[in-house]
Amino acid sequence: ECKSLVTYFKQSSLHLKLEKSLKQESETRWNSKLEMLESVYNQFELIKDILNDKNELYRIENIDCDILLDLINFLKIFKEASNCLESSKNPTLHLVIPWYKTLKEHCKISQHDSEVLKQIKKIVNEKITLKYKIEELHKLAIFFNPKMKQLKILDSDDILWVKDQIREHYSLICEVNNIDSNDDNDDLYAESQKRLTKKLCKKSSREFIDFSEYYDS
């Protein structure tokens, strides 16, 4: 309904009567759907007045503002996730698992949710499980996040696997560089981790959602 409404306003030049232009959805830009919904919601009363003057209120009779607001609030975090994970200027591999867990948590149904929102959460949660694949590389990348070196975000089996993989690769690095991996191993291991985390996880100039519950103590 919102998409049809925006199209109608654009084609009939009614958008010129609005304080701000309505945003059209783009098939190639997922976040444009949220922008479209927000543009309709933020000017809904003015849209209603314009349509009332033209005896065309039927065009918004199926748009429930409460549901629209629920949907907008639900989608905002997905915009934040996509902006963060699509960054081309900062490392993002170590953020895949934190965002996965955050989005899954966001989709948990609450008793306070409307029936429509419950259905939306159920569908989106299933889509995340189906489409959002966690690979071994994502688990390894957690180790190189300076704030998550204790790997609290992973389950116990994955923690053991990551540590084994890191030590195995560390031994190979020592071998290639003619370093005895048994000499002061803990100090060398810690220093190696420090150097790698500094290179791989430069702090982004943009602040995204708080993952502090997974940070080291």
UniProtKB/TrEMBL annotation:
PANTHER family (alphabetical): DNA REPLICATION-RELATED ELEMENT FACTOR, ISOFORM A
Protein name, UniProt field: 508_t:CDS:1
Stored InterPro entries: RNaseH-like_sf, Vacuolar_transposase_reg
Domain of life: Eukaryota
GO BP of this protein: regulation of transcription by RNA polymerase II
SUPFAM superfamilies: Ribonuclease H-like
GO cellular component: nucleus
